[in-house]
Design goal:
Largest sheet of chain A: 5 strands, mixed
Strand order of the largest sheet of chain A: 1-2-3-4-5
Radius of gyration of chain A: 13 Å
Order of helices and strands of chain B: HHHHHHEEHEHEHEH
CATH topology of the largest domain in chain B: Globin-like
Number of helices of chain B: 10
Shape of chain A: globular
Structural class of chain B: alpha/beta
Number of domains of chain A: 1
Largest interface: A-B, 22 and 18 residues
Oligomer: heterodimer
Strand content of chain A: 15-25%
CATH architecture of the largest domain in chain B: Orthogonal Bundle
Distance between the termini of chain A: 35 Å
Largest sheet of chain B: 5 strands, mixed
Number of helices of chain A: 4
Shape of chain B: rod-shaped
Number of domains of chain B: 2
CATH architecture of chain A: 2-Layer Sandwich
Strand content of chain B: 5-15%
Order of helices and strands of chain A: EEHEHEHEH
Strand order of the largest sheet of chain B: 1-2-3-4-5
CATH topology of chain A: Transcription Regulator spoIIAA
Structural class of chain A: alpha/beta
Helix content of chain B: 55-70%
Helix content of chain A: 40-55%
CATH superfamily of chain A: STAS domain
Chain lengths: 117, 276
């Protein structure tokens, strides 16, 4: 199983998913992120999914769950760089990721976090 | 009565009377087309067909029937594309029956041969007709696709604001296309506000509303906010009486209001220039 690295930049955790997402990797990412949030006390999480071409309902739900978990640590989650095809798939699956904020790219995501901080 | 041999005799008869039959045949066809093709052109077409008919009837070679059918299919396809009517297209085949009948009417001994020939021609006529209908359907499908493409422009209204004027009925296929184009443009331009203008949508029912909501939530996943504009008074009444909820999606009466809203949201202000 491949692990997704988590980078800390200032008070923001930056996660760029560059692999084909497997169910276990997402579960692992969720655990790692929770640990990291506790350890660093970060205020925001940016998850970059520019390179993700395929999502299913499980991964969609896990992304929403990551948002809810971060909120428990008073951190805002921004999902950035979603591809149109992925957005259409998630909508068709009925997942609108209500608890997660979204932005077009990492830069806008960072602006969103800094603006709300 | 042997069908093969009577076909053979008919083929021989047609070969002997080629000039007369083709002459009369093209006369009939030209008259039926009311001057839309030149007589010389028609005659050339029919001469090719005629020699194929003879080859098919004489049964000398296997491929002749297939070739004849292919030639007729080609003919009716081109007729369909050039806007000829079904009658005018079928005429090309049925006129041959008339032309031959006029010749054999006096010679009683060819009657059974003529019947067999007539049945073959009917078959070919039906084939022509079928190809004609298929070609027309192809044209209709092409046009529908072209219309779909034309009907979904995505316009850049302002820095960071794009608009999709929706015109016509919003069905699933259209929604899919609109959604794809909208999302692609959002990514390409980096816009974070999109205006869906439904001025040109004649009716808004629950299905259309569902499609709009889907588009909005897909755009939200990309991080863009949607505004629905162009809601006419009657449409507003329908929406309310159907109990459709647009939730926290901003709705505006006109495209101008929507643009003003988007500009406000992006922290921009348009004001009159001072005296020059």
């Amino acid at each position: 199983m491949e692990r997704v690295p988590i980078l800390k930049i200032g008070t923001t955790l930056f996660v760029s998913i560059q692999i084909d997402l497997q169910d276990e990797s997402v579960v692992q990412l969720q655990e790692d992120l929770a640990d990291e949030l506790v350890a660093t006390g970060a205020r925001g999480v940016i998850i970059d999914i520019t390179a993700v071409e395929i999502v299913d309902s499980f991964i969609g739900r896990m992304l929403a769950m990551i948002g809810s978990i971060s909120r428990l640590f008073d951190a805002e989650t921004v999902l950035v760089g979603m591809r149109p095809a992925v957005a259409i798939t998630l909508t068709e699956l009925g997942l609108s990721l209500r608890g997660v904020r979204t932005a077009l790219n990492a830069e806008k995501g960072l602006e969103l976090l800094n603006g709300s901080a | 009565m042997d069908v093969d041999s009577s076909q053979g005799r008919m083929a021989a008869y047609l070969r002997d009377h080629q000039d007369k039959v083709v002459g009369r045949w093209s006369e009939l066809v030209v008259a039926g087309l009311r001057g839309r093709s030149s007589p010389a052109e028609v005659r050339r077409e029919l001469e090719d067909l005629y020699s194929l008919v003879i080859r098919a009837l004489s049964g000398a070679d296997e491929q002749a029937t297939g070739e004849l059918r292919a030639a007729l299919a080609e003919l009716s396809r081109s007729r369909a594309r050039n806007g000829f009517s079904p009658t005018e297209t079928a005429l090309a085949v049925f006129a041959l029956k008339d032309a031959v009948y006029e010749l054999v009417a006096d010679t009683a001994e060819l009657a059974p041969e003529y019947l067999v020939f007539s049945r073959t021609m009917d078959d070919l006529g039906l084939h022509t007709f079928e190809t004609y209908a298929a070609a027309r359907e192809e044209i209709i499908a092409d046009q529908a696709e072209a219309m779909l493409e034309l009907s979904t422009p995505v316009i850049r209204l302002w820095e960071g604001v794009i608009a999709v004027p929706l015109v016509g009925t919003l069905d699933s296929a259209r929604t899919q296309l609109v959604m794809e184009k909208l999302l692609e443009t959002l990514v390409a331009t980096g816009a974070d506000h999109a205006v869906l203008d439904i001025t040109g949508v004649p009716t808004v029912d629950t299905e259309v509303a569902q499609h709009l909501l889907k588009t909005v939530s897909a755009a939200r996943l990309l991080g863009a906010e949607c505004i629905i504009s162009g809601i006419r008074p009657q449409v507003a009444q329908t929406i309310v009486s159907l109990g459709i909820e647009f939730g926290d999606i901003a709705t505006k009466a006109t495209l101008a209001d929507a643009l003003a809203h988007a500009l406000r949201r992006t922290g921009q202000r348009v004001e009159k220039a001072g005296p020059a």
